[in-house]
Design brief:
About 75% of the residues lie in helices and about 0% in strands. It is mainly alpha-helical and about 170 residues long. It has one domain (about 1-170). Helix 5 packs antiparallel against helix 6 (about 140-160).
């Protein structure tokens, strides 16, 4: 997080530099920087997954052009699942809590959210490797098997992402 947080702080204007010493503002601004760093990270992750969805779409077009329609159903399901994941990541909570909310989001929880989202970057690489495998296969059965493996991986990623809110609530994983 130091990388993104440092870039955000480095972009402060003169007014922000001036008011950061106002009592109470510094803690508020530090939370905002953490939220913004997490948002930027999630945009990067979503962009990575979306790139793989576009690659799958290109593969589906190529298979259609070649008359290999048998595997399109599985590829289409995979693309829809990937799009749903991208949408969930883009619209995920920023870690805000209202004044009267039962659970207050502190810096520790915001850092945990960032670390959770950073782990998703590894998932992007895993999905990319699976899409590479689909692109490299020649037989329809192999394409279907590789697409099914990708579907299973996307289900795992979605399940893991569903536990994201538990980071804020500090719910132990089962």
């Amino acid at each position: 997080m130091a990388d993104l947080k440092g870039r955000i702080v480095g972009a402060y204007g003169k007014l922000e530099e001036l008011v950061k010493n106002v009592p109470g503002y510094r803690g508020y601004k530090e939370k905002e920087v953490r939220r913004e760093a997490d948002k930027l990270l999630r945009v990067k992750v979503a962009r990575g997954f979306d790139e793989q969805r576009r690659r799958l779409n290109s593969l589906a077009v190529a298979l259609t052009s070649a008359g290999r329609l048998g595997v399109l159903v599985t590829l289409d399901r995979t693309m829809m699942r990937l799009q749903a994941l991208v949408d969930r990541i883009k619209t995920a909570s920023y870690g805000y809590a209202g004044l009267f909310d039962a659970v207050k989001v502190q810096e520790k929880e915001l850092d945990a959210l960032y670390n959770f989202d950073a782990a998703l970057l590894e998932s992007v690489d895993k999905v990319k490797a699976l899409v590479d495998g689909i692109a490299a296969t020649q037989k329809d059965e192999e394409v279907a098997q590789a697409a099914t493996a990708l579907l299973e991986t996307l289900d795992e990623i979605n399940t893991t992402f569903s536990r994201r809110q538990d980071v804020v609530l500090e719910v132990p994983s089962v």
